[in-house]
Amino acid sequence: MVSRLSKRVLSILAFLAAGYVLLLIPDLPPMEPSGGESESFTWDRDAYWALLENKFREAREAGCFQLEKQLASNFSNIEKQLTVLERAVFAPQAPEFMRLQDSLFNLGMLVAACPDRLEDYIRLFNRLRTVVKDQSANWDINSAEARDCIYRLLYGGRMAVEEIMLQSPGEALPSAITVVAEPSVTPSGRILGVNIHSGDILVSRGGAPTSALIARGNDYPGNFSHAALVHVDENTRQVSIIESHIEKGVTVTRIEDYLEDTKLRVMVLRLRAGLPDLQKDPLLPHRAARYALQRALNEHIPYDFSMDINDPSKLFCSEVVSDAYRSTGVRLWSGLSHISGVGVKTWLAAFGVRNFVTQEPSDLEYDPQLRVVAEWRDYRTLRQDRLDNAVVDVMLEKADAGENLKYDWYKLPLARILKLYSSFLNWFGEVGPIPEGMNATAALKNEWFSRQHRSARNKLDELIRNFKMENGYSPPYWEIVKLARQAMAQSLL
């Protein structure tokens, strides 16, 4: 009896061991990533950043009273430069734009030392945004000259604003900033103190490490990882958000639930009122939103891990927006996103991405057809955004040097069982522990990536506190990246 029982137990154990070994067999490696061959933007101005930081220290020592005339002169100088740009059309490579950029950065350094002028600086930057968007309407937005110019001024200017915000007392920061009151006749609702209209686009940044990877893994590294479309019911004025999540594909979300999700920043974009298509049909954005809403309610649309903008059967977050507007004849993302870095392409391929000329959320800000209507951000979330970005930037440096995403190989059998369970739940419209469309190996690689990011991020937090104690101010982003390299090295010891 004991012998027969022992044999049965041994048979079961042998069967389980054999099953475990079989489930350990690794997946075939993803196809070699191709496409997106372009040239990644680099600032390449380390000496200039160091000069600005030295001037910032000098400005702090001089005090705001001594800087009053210099501040007034610099504000006036930029106003004059903007007036010149408002009166004529300039090519993107015109020297006026580079002068404007440096004027903005130099003024930003002074305002960082005297943050009482922050609101004046924000108003100036908002005017600059409008001027650049108006100028870019005349450019070939896919040319390197146009993309570089827009990125330098819009992304660079916003980063200058946020450097000042992070040198300011946290409680003094405005969390909602209206940029342009772009007119719209579509149904509207009010959220967080700002009117939003049906057809408006929300680009945002999540709090997960992979959100930072999406935002930074681009030829023009940005700050946004998610895009969604607003629908406002014309009768009830109920605000709904149509968006796509990796866990469950395209969904319709109440605005309250959308805002409860971790968001480090949100930006509202709206079609320019002067667009010919919009002048012919002022309700065009509402028609786009209604199309997206009805499609989301009537069919299950899986998440598009491959980021294939030519296949509407699956949609990632940006495609929800572009697919809706495409139904009205409007093509958004005038400048398509390119992902060219060998390292980031290899890592994204490990998560299922197959298309590297696509539509990234961050790049929608630069589309000349759209206006930035408002932004939400605060001191705490801005700080987290910066730290997450810096760690990912350093991780991508390692990826470019040949480091691959790893995973805990011994967890693969369990992950495959969880994937089977998730597929069963997906069949009944439920969400499982591993997202639909993601395989078990990719899920484990995501876990490893997040763990590495979290470890370096915690160490970086400590290094930043030390920097602030030693220097008396928060480190600017270029210093944070240097500290992130130290944090990454120390966290891996």
CATH architecture grouping of the largest domain: Alpha-Beta Complex
Q: Order of strands side by side in the largest beta sheet?
A: 1-11-8-4-5-6-7
CATH level 1 name of the largest domain: Alpha Beta
Between the first and last Cα atoms, what is the distance in angstroms? 54 Å
Overall outline? globular
Indicate how many domains the architecture comprises. Answer: 3
Helix content range: 40-55%
- Average pLDDT, all residues: 90
The CATH homologous superfamily of the largest domain corresponds to endopeptidase domain like (from Nostoc punctiforme)
Relative strand content: 5-15%
Total strand segments: 11
Rg over CA atoms, rounded to whole Å, is 25 Å
Can you offer a commentary on this structure?
The protein is of the alpha+beta class and 493 residues long. It has three domains: 46-174, no CATH class; 179-376, endopeptidase domain like (from Nostoc punctiforme) (endopeptidase fold (from Nostoc punctiforme)), CATH 3.90.1720.10; 392-491, no CATH class. Helices cover 53% and strands 11% of the residues. The protein is built from 16 helices and eleven strands. It has helices at 2-23, 46-62, 64-87, 95-113, 118-136, 144-167, 209-216, 255-260, 276-280, 284-298, 317-326, 342-350, 379-400, 412-427, 440-471, 477-491, and strands at 176-178, 188-191, 194-197, 201-205, 226-232, 239-245, 249-254, 265-271, 337-338, 357-358, 370-376. A hairpin with a 2-residue loop joins strand 2 and strand 3 (194-197). Helix 14 (412-427) packs across helix 15 (440-471). The mean pLDDT is 90.
